[in-house]
């Protein structure tokens, strides 16, 4: 079982949105997925409560019980455990980094967000954990707008920060789907938002070396 922590010391960058959508995209390729909610705001747990599907399995945990929940996921035969964390350099966020095989760091492409992102990437680096920054909620301003973000991405890369290729754009389906315990991936499986999440998933599969061939073929979430 691989453990992926969604961490950003900055709030509102899309940790919960990206992780919940990603969980469904991993289930789509046949993986058994759990989510541990380490955020006292319980966002992902609230999302799970209104979901119609039993999957992914969601557990509300505290920093000191994280290890037990990860062990339980392993014993249940899960392939992947995602951890959602609070929006600060909290004990929870640090414990999640320590427990993770891979740290996913969502970042909005704004000035202050970019300034702040290296505090999270440095924590992952110091802990010896591979990580990837993903630009989320990129304003949909067409090719030119994306080129500007790609230039920022290249600057960060030149400074030694690992930034993933995919850009997740600002799309209303990400917020509207969450209100019914769903995701963009389930509500508009052929949409652009779902395609971006699947590209993110495929990058993470490679970077975190996630085995995808052990399970049966693609399936829909029940
Ligand atoms: N790509 C996106 N497109 C549109 N809305 C988005 C996107 N990503 C996130 N949002 C919206 O931005 C807000 C913050 O997102 P979310 O709660 O996922 O961030 P977070 O990092 O988990 O926040 P917190 O730090 O409070 O836990 C939510 O209202 C969510 O619906
Ligand atoms: Mg959150």
From TrEMBL:
The keyword Transport does not apply. Residues 5-181 form the CobQ/CobB/MinD/ParA nucleotide binding domain. The keyword Amino-acid biosynthesis does not apply. InterPro entries: CobQ/CobB/MinD/ParA_Nub-bd_dom (IPR002586), DNA_Partitioning_ATPase (IPR050678), P-loop_NTPase (IPR027417). Keywords: Plasmid. SUPFAM superfamilies: P-loop containing nucleoside triphosphate hydrolases (SSF52540). This is Cobyrinic acid ac-diamide synthase. Gene3D superfamilies: P-loop containing nucleotide triphosphate hydrolases (3.40.50.300). It comes from Methylobacterium nodulans (strain LMG 21967 / CNCM I-2342 / ORS 2060).
């Amino acid at each position: 079982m691989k453990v992926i922590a969604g961490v950003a010391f900055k709030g509102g960058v899309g940790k919960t949105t990206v992780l919940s959508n990603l969980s469904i995209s991993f289930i789509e390729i046949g993986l058994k997925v759990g989510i541990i909610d380490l955020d006292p705001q319980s966002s992902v747990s609230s999302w799970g409560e209104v979901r119609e599907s039993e999957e992914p399995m969601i557990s509300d945990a505290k920093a000191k019980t994280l290890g037990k929940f990860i062990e339980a996921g392993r014993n249940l035969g899960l392939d992947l455990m995602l951890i959602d964390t609070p929006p600060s350099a909290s004990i929870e966020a640090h414990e999640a980094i320590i427990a993770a095989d891979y740290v996913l760091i969502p970042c909005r492409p704004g000035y202050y967000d970019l300034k702040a992102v290296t505090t999270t990437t440095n924590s992952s680096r110091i802990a010896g954990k591979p990580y990837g920054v993903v630009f989320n909620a990129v304003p949909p301003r067409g090719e030119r707008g994306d080129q500007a973000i790609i230039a920022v991405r290249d600057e960060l890369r030149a400074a030694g920060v690992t930034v993933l290729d995919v850009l997740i754009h600002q799309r209303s389906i990400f917020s509207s789907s969450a209100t019914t315990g769903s995701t963009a991936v389930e509500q508009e499986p052929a949409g652009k938002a779902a395609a971006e999440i699947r590209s993110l998933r495929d990058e993470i599969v490679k970077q975190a070396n996630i085995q995808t061939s052990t399970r049966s073929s693609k399936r829909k979430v029940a």
